[in-house]
């Protein structure tokens, strides 16, 4: 832990410097105290500003890549992560829990600690997160008692989950030398609340040894009650979730539909906690995630809303949702709001690439974690602005006097570039300060700050970061390209000023050095003498600033300009070694107490610059060619099969709040068919009078079901999404009537129905009415005949290695056709078209990607038509291509599941509604970098 170790290293009086130091790994992890007051969390008494990004390990089935993503999160300046834990992901059945392989959260928490990231754990039990059942296992639908209440049935179930998880979390707490700094109970628990339940969750945690502060994320704003700030069930640090942009990525001009997004203070005894702050969006209407990233939640949104929130709310705890979204692989996703990709338009894409949003996170994250006085501020009077179009909001640190002034447009939706003069009373005097601001931007200006060994009176450039490197203060300040900037520093006597690059005017009078410049490129100013340590000021544009990386080493921080990612740095003797990724050849410049540079294991020839840095050049990655996918084999799934081993639908009653309209009960979950497809077979002896079969299914949004009689296709219908709890109960949510061909009286007949369930509803309203909606057939009757029908059904069988959500109940899934070592028997050359029903395809290919490069690979579909394809790679179900719905055509295949050096098998289960053509399927390289992390292949059996 960067800060923790710093604190443990004794009371080095670097509070204002906040230059975190990573100590070498200790044998026994030192323990720490975690406390808090109205301003901030404190570790061993030292205040921290927790700048966390949300990450879902369960959306990235490759522990090696957890490290990649966590390193990228840290490199963006985050000092923390928020982690949901998904109950469903770990539990295929009551009493059965698995924390191995891709579910090894112990390993995840170890990694967070190694990387110096604080963790806010969010174990639910309910998490929402657009996961099937909001993270509840499907089997919970069969448990009597309202979920998210203190009902005994539900209580016994969640205690089982927390009984497994809490002890793991407990041993990773900061207080025991680990990374967990706070424990969040429940999730946006606002409707149908039960205070005893909230209290029980906390008592359960405490009994398991959780002693870090307990938090909660209140939905949306304090108008939602209760806030859990007081009374039974109150948590120590109540937080608020804010999604000011809502979730419509189709609308490019959205600007705060859901308000200012200023996190409310819910109590005076704890810091303001922005538990979930919007950092991307679900793609409700399938605009594609790039629209979410660029239009809705892009850098402008981040600049305005995040900075506005930082200064207006004084929050010192943040969880940005999401830093990295990931993939709804298997049947992980909730059906209504998401598709396979959970990219989320986040700063780091699903294919683990860094975007413009990442650059903005870096500018802000480095600032908030470098400038310590931000951890303790009170509202203060902002400087008056001469132009009413611009306005200020301010906070000040009561101990140091340091001021943080937000400069924003008075009309937050303004799109104009405006200028003004601020009448600014700073701790160092009163100044008339010219400023300018673009529309949909905001600046945080700092005054009265001991910036390392320097005294910053004020600046109209924003501070990105500063660090003491080799006895000098190196500071990176920035502003919009072409805008004017001024920085005023105080000295005891006139210092010497050398402008090494760019055009900067300097003047000195009365102890003040004033620098005036236009932000353009990267100006460099060396200041020495004047009774202070030397300083190198790097004054750049937004873009130039984003080229810098900061990495902490045991010899202090280093700064790097260039490369596409600096994961970590080490200084030993006179050599600085970087773990860095490079997308294309270019210059690299390093500010470190060193004379030699090594990147990875390659020495990089360098020269020393007048800035005191090392400059060299790095080469880019070797190009890659991926194999074409050829030699497909295919095999059709039988429609009528021997069903004698299948359970008979025989139940007369159901736990579902929706009383069945036909009996026996046909609900899939009532017979253990929890995820994905379910095959039903209804056997009867024809009377000859049957004219049709009338069916009814609930699949969740976008689900379909298909019907055959004696193997002959009768057609398909959309499955329903919602049954009504009000009378008339169960009003035919997904009706379909299928005409039967004439049947001879007395002949045996079989109706086959394939129901494609898309996942379980969430439980946002905590009333069981959504969550406990049945799946599968909810009604079936013959029209024209009362011949008794015996229904049997076949659902999923959990894959022990890949987890409960990997598979549904397709015949080929149950028979293991999706596995890479499936027998070749029964497979043949594919026909030109796919017939309605399920046709399996498989092919093998070898990969040998260049060693030491990170090449995320995707599977691309170019076909169209009425079909879906479940994608299995080496047995892992990585998504569903919905040819008729879009928008996703490329599916990320995570390294580890994908063998980058060796043989791979792609297997597709194509579910065609009408005759269709699969269309081209190909491998695509989604990026190419040198660097990356070592990849551990997942087992296939
Ligand atoms: C929040 C919720 C998260 C997630 C998010 C939208 O309200 O707490 O779990 O669902 O909305 O992506």
Beta-strand share of residues:
35-45%
Q: How many domain regions?
A: 4
Which architecture name of the largest domain does CATH use? Answer: Alpha-Beta Barrel
Please tally the β strands and state the result: 54
The largest pleated sheet is described as: 8 strands, parallel, barrel
CATH fold field value of the largest domain: TIM Barrel
Q: Which structural category do the helix and sheet elements fall into? A: mainly beta
End-to-end gap = 36 Å
Keywords: Glycoprotein, Glycosidase, Hydrolase, Signal
InterPro entries: Betagal_dom2, Betagal_dom2_sf, BetaGal_dom3, BetaGal_dom3_sf, BetaGal_jelly_roll_dom, Galactose-bd-like_sf, GH, Gly_Hdrlase_35_cat
Domain Beta-galactosidase: 373-548
GO molecular function: beta-galactosidase activity
Structure, briefly:
With 941 residues, this protein is mostly beta strands.
Overview of this structure, please?
It is a single chain. This protein is mainly beta and 941 residues long. It folds into four domains: 2-354, TIM Barrel (Alpha-Beta Barrel); 376-618, 3-layer Sandwich (beta-galactosidase, domain 2); 638-794, Jelly Rolls; 810-930, Jelly Rolls (Sandwich). It is built from eleven helices and 54 strands. An eight-stranded parallel β-barrel has the order 4-5-6-7-8-9-10-11. Helix 5 (152-171) links the parallel strand 6 (118-122) and strand 7 (180-184). Helix 2 packs parallel to helix 4 (105-114) and helix 8 (299-313) packs parallel to helix 9 (356-370). The radius of gyration is 30 Å and the shape is elongated. The two termini are 36 Å apart. The relative contact order is 0.10. Beta-D-galactopyranose binds at residues 127-130, 187-188, 219, 241, 276, 282.
């Amino acid at each position: 832990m960067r800060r923790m170790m710093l604190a443990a290293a004794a009371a080095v009086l670097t509070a204002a410097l906040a230059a975190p130091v990573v100590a070498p790994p200790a044998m026994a992890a030192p323990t720490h105290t975690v406390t808090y007051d109205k301003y901030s969390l404190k570790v061993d008494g030292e205040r921290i500003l927790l700048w966390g990004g949300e990450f879902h390990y369960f959306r990235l089935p490759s522990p090696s890549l957890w490290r990649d993503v966590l390193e990228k999160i840290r490199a963006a300046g985050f000092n923390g992560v928020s982690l949901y834990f998904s109950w469903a992901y770990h539990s295929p059945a009551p009493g059965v829990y698995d924390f191995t392989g891709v579910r090894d959260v112990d390993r995840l928490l170890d990694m967070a600690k190694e990387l110096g990231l604080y963790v806010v754990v969010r174990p639910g039990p309910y998490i929402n997160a657009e996961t099937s059942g909001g993270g509840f296992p499907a089997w919970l639908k069969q448990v009597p008692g309202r979920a998210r209440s203190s009902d005994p049935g539900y209580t016994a179930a969640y205690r089982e989950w927390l009984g497994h998880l809490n002890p793991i979390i407990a041993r990773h707490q900061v207080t025991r030398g680990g990374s967990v700094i706070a424990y969040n109970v429940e999730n946006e628990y606002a409707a149908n609340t039960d205070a005893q339940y909230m209290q029980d969750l906390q008592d359960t945690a405490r009994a398991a040894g959780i002693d870090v502060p307990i938090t909660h994320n209140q939905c949306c704003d304090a108008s939602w009650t209760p806030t859990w700030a007081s009374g039974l069930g109150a948590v120590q640090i109540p937080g608020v979730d804010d999604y000011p942009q809502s979730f419509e990525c189709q609308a490019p001009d959205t600007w705060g539909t859901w308000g200012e997004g200023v996190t409310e203070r819910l109590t005076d005894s704890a810091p303001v906690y922005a538990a979930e702050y919007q950092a991307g969006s679900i793609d409700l209407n399938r605009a594609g995630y790039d629209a979410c990233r660029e239009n809705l939640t892009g850098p402008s949104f981040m600049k305005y809303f995040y900075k506005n929130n930082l200064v207006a709310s004084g929050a010192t705890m943040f969880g940005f949702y999401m830093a990295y979204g990931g993939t709804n692989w298997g049947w992980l996703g909730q059906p209504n709001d998401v598709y396979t990709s959970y990219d989320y338009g986040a700063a780091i894409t699903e294919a683990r690439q860094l975007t413009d949003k990442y650059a903005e996170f870096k500018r802000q994250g480095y600032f908030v974690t470098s400038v310590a006085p931000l951890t303790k501020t009170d509202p203060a009077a902002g400087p008056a602005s001469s132009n009413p179009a611009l306005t200020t909001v301010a906070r000040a640190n009561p101990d140091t006097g340091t001021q943080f002034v937000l400069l924003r447009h008075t009309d937050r939706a303004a799109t104009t570039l405006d200028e003004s003069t601020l009448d600014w009373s700073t701790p160092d005097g009163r100044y008339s300060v010219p400023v300018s601001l673009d529309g949909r931007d905001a600046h945080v200006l700092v005054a009265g700050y001991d910036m390392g060994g320097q005294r910053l009176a004020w600046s109209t450039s924003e501070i990105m970061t500063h660090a003491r490197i080799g006895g000098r203060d190196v500071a990176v300040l920035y502003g919009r390209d072409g805008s004017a900037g001024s920085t005023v520093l105080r000295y005891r006597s006139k210092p010497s000023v050398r402008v090494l690059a760019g055009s900067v005017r300097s003047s000195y009078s009365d102890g003040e050095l004033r620098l005036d410049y236009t932000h353009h490129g990267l100006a460099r100013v060396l200041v020495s003498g004047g009774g202070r340590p030397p300083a190198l000021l790097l004054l750049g544009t937004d873009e130039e600033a984003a080229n810098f990386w900061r990495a902490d080493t045991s010899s202090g921080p280093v700064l790097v300009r260039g490369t596409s990612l600096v994961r970590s740095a080490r200084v030993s003797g006179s050599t600085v070694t970087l773990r860095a990724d490079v997308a294309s050849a270019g210059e690299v410049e390093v500010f470190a107490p060193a004379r030699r540079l090594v990147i990875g294991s390659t020495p990089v020839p360098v020269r020393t610059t007048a800035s005191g840095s090392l400059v060299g050049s790095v080469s880019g990655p070797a190009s890659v060619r991926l194999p074409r996918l050829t030699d497909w084999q295919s095999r059709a799934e039988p429609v009528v099969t021997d069903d004698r081993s299948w359970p008979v639908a025989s139940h007369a009653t159901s736990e579902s709040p929706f009383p069945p309209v036909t009996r026996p009960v046909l609900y899939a979950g009532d017979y253990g068919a929890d995820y994905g497809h379910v095959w039903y077979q209804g056997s009867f002896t024809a009377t000859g009078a049957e004219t049709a079969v009338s069916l009814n299914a609930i699949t969740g949004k976008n689900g379909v079901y298909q019907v055959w009689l004696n193997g002959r296709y009768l057609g398909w219908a959309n499955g329903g999404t919602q049954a009504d709890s009000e009378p008339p109960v169960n009003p035919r949510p997904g009706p379909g009537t299928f005409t039967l061909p004439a049947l001879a009286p007395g002949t045996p007949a079989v109706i086959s129905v394939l129901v494609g369930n898309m996942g379980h509803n969430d439980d946002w309203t905590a009333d069981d009415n959504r969550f406990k909606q049945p799946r599968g057939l909810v009604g079936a009757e013959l029209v024209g005949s009362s011949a008794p029908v015996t229904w049997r059904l076949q659902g999923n069988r959990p894959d022990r290695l890949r987890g409960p959500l990997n598979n549904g109940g397709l015949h080929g899934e149950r028979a293991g056709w999706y596995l890479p070592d499936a027998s070749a028997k029964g497979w043949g050359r594919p026909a030109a078209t796919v017939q309605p029903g399920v046709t399996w395809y498989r092919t093998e290919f070898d990969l040998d990607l260049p060693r030491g490069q990170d090449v995320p690979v995707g599977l691309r579909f170019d076909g169209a038509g009425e079909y879906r394809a479940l994608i299995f790679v080496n047995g892992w179900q990585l998504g569903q291509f919905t040819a008729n719905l879009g928008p996703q055509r490329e599916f990320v295949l995570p390294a580890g599941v994908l063998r980058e050096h060796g043989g791979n098998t792609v297997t597709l289960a194509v579910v065609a509604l009408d005759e269709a053509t699969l269309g081209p399927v190909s491998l695509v390289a989604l990026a190419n970098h040198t660097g990356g992390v070592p990849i551990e292949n997942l087992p296939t059996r």
